[in-house]
């Protein structure tokens, strides 16, 4: 494919953490060309993304521009695909306009992840816009995109880690097992906007949102059974380490679990089944999800690691776009490092 024939795309929320990672991935992608990067605080004066992220100086000088709805007809002519790395409610408002203009939207927010409108309202505090077609929930390893969907909901960071461990073995759990997901995230999970309680110097490893986080219903929907979720915030920059406990049926062996995971992920290049509990350092700045498990009597324990901004956000979105356009799952995702 010559550069002329690449797929033109745009990023909204490009000044934010997930948006900046998207810009970097798309800037380097062999089959996509990033033509527009929007940021709500971009001034009329053109400013390159390297003004916000100096580590990109000389490597990516993508201009950040402000968005006005007047730009939509022109954008729809120039671009096929749009990635939204925006607050949930902003995505909910913008995505229907982009779809109506004929664009394909990969939404990194939670605006369209929950299929139950009441659950969505409870979790997010605003009504989900009604769309004509059902929105696929894009846990990449478990989603078959046809390539004609107008909107794809990219899963949340914590639910990605939990579901990649639990989905392949869910049928081996006891009927009433309610898996417990304890996960620790770095502060980039809270986004770039400065807030005292997520500032690295203020944070000291702490649980929050116990059994009430909006990702709990998302995990339950993805896994197909109730879960108990306890997120924690750690004073490190990026990465999620999830420890997951679930009860398997009597007689299930280590080999059965290993075989289920191996069969499920045999052709999935971004899942690594590992023999020792993963360290965050081995996934940070990579698009991988590393999964380790141990069976102790009937208790199955997983240790799972992802980079929240990559496999938990930008890299998974690009992986889904790869699938949408029939490209290899890992196209443009390996050997790049990260921005933030
Ligand atoms: N951080 C993470 O680990 C993950 C994040 N996500 C989701 O991705 C999305 C982006 O998150 P993240 O990158 O962390 O967030 P950031 O806070 O880092 O960035 C948010 C972006 O949205 C823009 N923005 C904020 N308010 C508005 C508005 N009213 N109108 C238009 N643009 C606006 C900001 O632009 P500006 O600053 O220029 O105004 C910024 O570019 C969220 O929906 C989040 O839930 C999903 C998975 C993981
Ligand atoms: C550490 C931290 O604050 N993490 C965020 C979750 C990450 C995120 O942005 O949420 P989505 O995946 O739903 O988009 C939180 O708990 O709200």
TrEMBL record:
Its main location: cytoplasm. The active site is at residue 157. Keywords: Amino-acid biosynthesis, Arginine biosynthesis, Cytoplasm, NADP, Oxidoreductase. GO terms for biological process: L-arginine biosynthetic process. GO terms for molecular function: N-acetyl-gamma-glutamyl-phosphate reductase activity; NAD binding; NADP+ binding. Catalyzes the NADPH-dependent reduction of N-acetyl-5-glutamyl phosphate to yield N-acetyl-L-glutamate 5-semialdehyde. Pathway: Amino-acid biosynthesis; L-arginine biosynthesis; N(2)-acetyl-L-ornithine from L-glutamate: step 3/4. Pfam families: Semialdhyde_dh (PF01118), Semialdhyde_dhC_1 (PF22698). It is an enzyme of class 1 (oxidoreductase). GO terms for cellular component: cytoplasm. The keyword NADP applies. InterPro entries: AGPR, AGPR_AS, AGPR_dimerisation_dom, AGPR_type-1, NAD(P)-bd_dom_sf, Semialdehyde_DH_NAD-bd. PROSITE patterns: ARGC. Its EC number is 1.2.1.38. Residues 8-148 form the Semialdehyde dehydrogenase NAD-binding domain. SUPFAM superfamilies: Glyceraldehyde-3-phosphate dehydrogenase-like, C-terminal domain, NAD(P)-binding Rossmann-fold domains. This is N-acetyl-gamma-glutamyl-phosphate reductase. It comes from Pseudidiomarina terrestris. It is found in: Cytoplasm. It catalyses: N-acetyl-L-glutamate 5-semialdehyde + phosphate + NADP(+) = N-acetyl-L-glutamyl 5-phosphate + NADPH + H(+).
